[in-house]
Specification:
52% of the residues lie in helices and 14% in strands. It is of the alpha/beta class and 214 residues long. It folds into two domains: 2-130, 3-Layer(aba) Sandwich (Rossmann fold), CATH 3.40.50; 136-213, Orthogonal Bundle (Arc Repressor Mutant, subunit A). Helix 2 packs parallel to helix 3 (62-73), helix 7 packs across helix 9 (179-193) and helix 8 (168-175) packs across helix 9 (179-193).
């Protein structure tokens, strides 16, 4: 896997590169701003880009803007956006429009090589990846009338894994059950929550996240 790392803080960038190289991933470029990132993606065609949300010049949402541009112009390049902020709104901004081959991780996870490599591999396989901490927070929100109370404990568990972007096969492997069992749980979850059960694996992630944010 050939990856470009876009992070303006040198120590953080070097740490990410070290973790990737220790895992046998080739880092073809390290950049500190969106312009340099887009040039590398255009000219060197990496397999994936790791992008910090806040980069120069304004340190607001440059990473999100760059990620969207990459997904629109270079759809074969996977995008994994990194943020130090636990903000579900950022996650939705990143994923909307082109959720496939796209992910959102909190920076605190990136120095766990296994987590970072797993996320990259899933993105490269065409999946949508959402940091589980965000999913957990959304699931734990208090509502006056909580429709999640309709779900069994197992259905809530399945819902959280759907929101993280796991496919039915991935959920089955995580829970050590059959894929058919997962399909049955997913169907029940979507029925109970009034969600459209027909969207593909990427759109169903957006549907679940939108529901959890409501």
């Amino acid at each position: 896997m050939r990856v470009v790392v876009a992070e303006d803080v040198m120590l953080t960038r070097e740490g990410i590169v070290h973790v990737l190289e220790e895992a046998g991933i080739e880092v073809i470029a390290e950049v500190a701003d969106p312009g340099a990132l887009l040039r590398v993606v255009s000219t060197r065609q990496p397999d994936a880009a790791l992008i910090d949300i806040r980069m120069p010049p304004t340190h607001t949402d440059e990473g999100i803007v760059a990620a969207r541009q990459i997904r629109e112009t270079e759809p074969e390049v996977g995008v994994l956006v990194l943020s130090q902020f636990l903000d579900s709104g950022y996650a939705m901004e990143v994923l909307e429009g082109h959720p496939e081959r796209t992910g959102y991780l909190l920076k605190e996870r990136i120095f766990d090589g296994a987590v970072l490599v797993d996320a990259l591999n899933r993105v490269m396989e065409g999946e949508t990846v959402v940091d589980p901490t965000i999913v957990t927070r959304l699931l734990g929100r208090r509502r006056l009338e909580d429709p999640l109370e309709r779900l069994t404990p197992r259905e809530r568990e399945v819902l959280s894994l759907v929101a993280e972007g796991l496919s039915n096969k991935g959920i089955a492997e995580r829970l050590v059950v059959t894929e058919r069992t997962v399909e049955a749980h997913v169907t029940q979850v979507f029925l109970k929550l009034g969600l459209d059960g027909s969207p593909g694996s990427h759109r169903r992630v957006l549907a679940v996240l939108a529901f959890l944010r409501a």
